[in-house]
Amino acid sequence: DPAGYFTTHNRAVRISLALLSEDRRQAAIDVLEREVLRSPDDPQVLYNLAAIRFRAGQYEQTTPTAQASLRVQPYNVSTYRMLRESLGEEGRHAEAKQLARDHSETLIVQANHAYAAGDQNTAAMSWGAAVFMDLQDPGTLIRNPDALGLLISVYHQNASKVRPIPFRDMPEQMRTLAGRCYAQGNPEDAI
Q1: For residues 136, 138, 142 and 144, what is the CA-based torsion angle, rounded to 10 degrees?
Q2: Highest-confidence range of 2-6, 7-11, 107-111, 177-181, by mean pLDDT?
Q3: What would the mean pLDDT of 99-109 be, rounded to a whole number?
């Protein structure tokens, strides 16, 4: 909704994106840096600042900004991937691997707490993000029986955003999830 964009997006983000469209990358970064000082926990500002820095190859500045963004919005898959790639570009491969191991588990714990507290929205977003962070190993999540329905729903919503993976190449956990769906009489969800 074009009209809604102006009410839902931070003004500094809109200005920075306009500057970026005019090839004024540093001016866009400057606007967002000033906004971070005023609104240090605004996920839109942090994400956009990290993304512009990342595209500019400013990996040393991208990393702390992406980390701050994930502290505010830990289920943002784009920020997670940007942080992981930024760490890799900096040569910090061990940290990137540790992030890949730990972040999905952190999201699952957060989702479990949200689910127990009745916050279905946060639970779904966190569980879904855990699946799509690293599709290769969503093991802990798949073993959580409370997550099955939400996993299927999130997968249906996001399947078009990931490249198709042939069944034989899927990690065992994904085959297990498909098997559980099939065993429960849901062949469409299994597929």
Answers
A1: 170
A2: 107-111
A3: 80
Specify whether the CB–CB gap between 142 and 106 falls below 8 A: no
Q: Which residue type sits at 22? A: E
Residue positions counted in the chain:
191
SS3 assignment, position 159: helix
* Percent over 90 (pLDDT), the chain: 34
SS3 34: helix
Neighbours of 104 (CB within 10 A): 24
Task: For the chain, report the end-to-end CA distance as a whole number of angstroms.
Answer: 33
| Phi-psi region at 91: left, alpha or beta (left = phi > 0; alpha = psi -120 to 50) | left
C-beta of residue 110 within 8 angstroms of C-beta of residue 74: yes
